[in-house]
User: Which sequence fits this backbone?
């Protein structure tokens, strides 16, 4: 089941970092996701790709929120890309889908 | 027949009840100490902040009233000893009489009774109302052991603060006695205090401190165990609070007597 | 791992209160993802059953397994692991009155995780947003209305994203609108966070709205466990009494009755 393995990979697209998150984001490793997002925000805009996230708990959501807050205060671009159905359901629960900039793909996110 | 067995039955019930109470208190003591020492290993760490908060409530907040009472007791002892000892022309013995009775007996006793009234009842009321409103259950289901969260910090704080308050009360009471008796003895208050210090033995002070540590355990266990066993709503909380104070003070006085007997043979 | 293993398994559970038997050998199982409603009148034993399910009572006879762990034999470590994955919302809220709303919700996170304080703050406020109490974190429980207390209690219950959520009497003492909102919220929690939810209630309307399956408890016995439709159309007389709010027929045993009235120590 390599498809659902937990992973968080940052990819530098030149002035824009794509953080790909896969698997089940929960308390056990959400701090890694948080660190990856905050590190990437150090020098560029960030898009967090969530297409292959099968579960996300509130510590994972908290990481996304903290990243967004940090990006806003430093004037960087930030967006959630291709959020999976499961992620969307959790975001909607807290009405965060109306707070985060959401994009269908990387191109759309970089265009902003 | 029933008129004979009824009183026996209720006596038996009361005995079993108080034995069960003591057993429960012993379990609480064991668990509190266990969580204090090894709680962090099983994910139930004792929070220094909770202990500090309890220390403030039990110790620091009690300072003004302790000062007031200790001062009064010191003056009272000065009055009594001067009156009693001058009848034998033994006025010079006033200093040693006050010093020994305060450090061995009154400092610890007065402080303990005061803290039982202030903090023993507060513990019983707080934990009692928490049991009634299911807060204790909520803690347990959250994986926070109620004994660790509520009892252990109080026990540690009491074990530190009651002896500390006792030493403080000793000093204030002797100061009070010095203020009253030094004119009658024709010495300055500072000379009185110097004389006290030279007459006191470490054993005298230790006796009071040892007692106060035992009182600390008594007050906490009685307060906490009556609190946890509250049943019957708000009225039950009120009854438990009263019970905690009365029980604590009775136990303090009895235990004090037993201690005094064995320590002064 | 077997995906369909029940999260709660109760076998032949008996409970006694003094000499009175409250539960007569109850069997009970809840599967992952299910919303189970336990229904019954007062004195049916549903509160006692709940206390056993929460691990607040150890069974004297029979077994209770939560998330596969037998709570009568579990070590403290195992019990703690189980409790971290369980959330409970008590009937009266049971908020710690000495802590603010925000601190109440953050309490389980502070006690059980090593998360960054910023993360804990976001997580606990997020939970308050979920229950529509965004921005209320600095109030003290004494300043809240009944509905707000219930919602705060729910926020605290889901603070750790539990697998299993217990909800005791969600609609008791609430006005119909607030209680309908809570029902809605329970459904959304299951769908979004994949929670398994056990609700104890005597409110029929709310039970029928949220339940996947209903267990009907009466005088210490489980009358039936089934889907909403099965319960609605059950031909069991007691269940129909409950559904139609009919007062129950009380069987009168003349001897026992007289004994109760006249004997000194009944």
Assistant:
């Amino acid at each position: 089941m390599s498809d659902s393995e937990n992973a968080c990979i940052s990819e530098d697209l030149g002035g824009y970092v794509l953080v790909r998150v896969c698997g089940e984001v929960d308390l056990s490793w959400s701090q890694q996701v948080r660190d990856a997002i905050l590190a990437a925000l150090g020098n560029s805009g960030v898009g967090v790709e969530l297409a292959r996230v099968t579960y996300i708990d509130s510590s994972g959501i908290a990481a996304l929120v903290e990243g967004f807050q940090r990006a806003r205060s430093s004037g960087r671009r930030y967006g959630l890309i291709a959020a999976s159905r499961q992620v969307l359901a959790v975001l909607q629960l807290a009405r965060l889908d109306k707070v985060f900039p959401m994009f269908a793909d990387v191109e759309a996110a970089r265009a902003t | 027949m029933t008129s004979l067995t009824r009183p026996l039955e209720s006596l038996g019930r009361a005995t079993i009840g108080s034995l069960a109470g003591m057993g429960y208190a012993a379990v609480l003591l064991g668990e509190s100490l266990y969580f204090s020492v090894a709680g962090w290993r099983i994910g139930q760490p004792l929070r220094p902040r909770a202990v500090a908060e309890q220390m403030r409530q039990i110790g620091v907040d009690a300072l003004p009233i302790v000062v007031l009472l200790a001062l009064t007791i010191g003056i009272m002892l000065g009055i009594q000893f001067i009156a009693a000892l001058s009848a034998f022309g033994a006025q010079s013995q006033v200093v040693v009489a006050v010093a020994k009775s305060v450090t061995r007996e009154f400092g610890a006793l007065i402080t303990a009774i005061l803290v039982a009234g202030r903090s023993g009842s507060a513990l019983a009321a707080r934990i009692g109302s928490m049991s009634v409103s299911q807060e204790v259950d909520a803690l347990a289901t959250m994986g926070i052991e109620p004994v660790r969260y509520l009892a252990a910090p109080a026990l540690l704080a009491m074990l530190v603060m009651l002896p500390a308050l006792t030493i403080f009360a000793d000093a204030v009471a002797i100061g009070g006695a010095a203020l009253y008796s030094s004119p009658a003895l024709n010495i300055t208050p500072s000379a009185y205090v110097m004389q006290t210090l030279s007459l006191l033995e470490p054993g005298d002070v230790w006796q009071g401190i040892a007692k106060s540590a035992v009182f600390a355990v008594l007050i906490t266990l009685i307060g906490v165990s009556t609190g946890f066993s509250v049943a019957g709503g708000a009225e039950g909380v009120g009854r438990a609070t009263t019970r905690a104070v009365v029980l604590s003070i009775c136990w303090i006085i009895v235990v004090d007597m037993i201690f005094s007997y064995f320590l002064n043979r | 791992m077997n995906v369909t293993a029940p999260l709660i398994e109760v076998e032949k559970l008996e409970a006694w209160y003094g000499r009175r038997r409250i539960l007569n050998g109850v069997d009970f199982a809840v599967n992952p993802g299910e919303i189970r409603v336990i229904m019954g009148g007062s004195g049916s034993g549903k509160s006692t059953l709940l206390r056993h399910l929460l691990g607040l009572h150890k069974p004297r006879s029979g077994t209770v397994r939560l998330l596969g762990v037998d709570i009568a034999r579990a070590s403290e470590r195992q019990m703690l692991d189980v409790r971290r994955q369980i959330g409970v919302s008590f009937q009266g809220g049971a908020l710690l009155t000495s802590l603010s709303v925000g601190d109440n919700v953050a309490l389980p996170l502070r006690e059980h995780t090593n998360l960054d304080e910023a993360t804990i703050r976001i997580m606990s406020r997020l939970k308050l947003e979920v229950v529509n109490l965004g921005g209320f974190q600095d109030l003290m429980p004494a300043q809240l209305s009944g509905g707000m207390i219930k919602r705060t209690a729910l926020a605290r219950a889901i603070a750790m994203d539990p697998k299993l959520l217990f909800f005791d009497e969600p609609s008791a003492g609430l006005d119909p609108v607030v209680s309908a909102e809570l029902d809605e919220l329970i459904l959304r929690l299951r769908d979004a966070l994949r929670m398994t939810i056990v609700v104890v209630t005597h409110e029929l309307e709310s039970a029928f709205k949220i339940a996947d399956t209903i267990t009907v408890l009466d005088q210490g016995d489980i009358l039936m466990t089934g889907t909403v439709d099965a319960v609605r159309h059950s031909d069991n007389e007691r269940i129909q009494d409950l559904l139609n709010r009919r007062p129950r027929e009380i069987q009168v045993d003349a001897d026992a009755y007289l004994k109760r009235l006249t004997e000194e120590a009944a």
Notes: DSSP finds ten helices and ten strands in chain C.
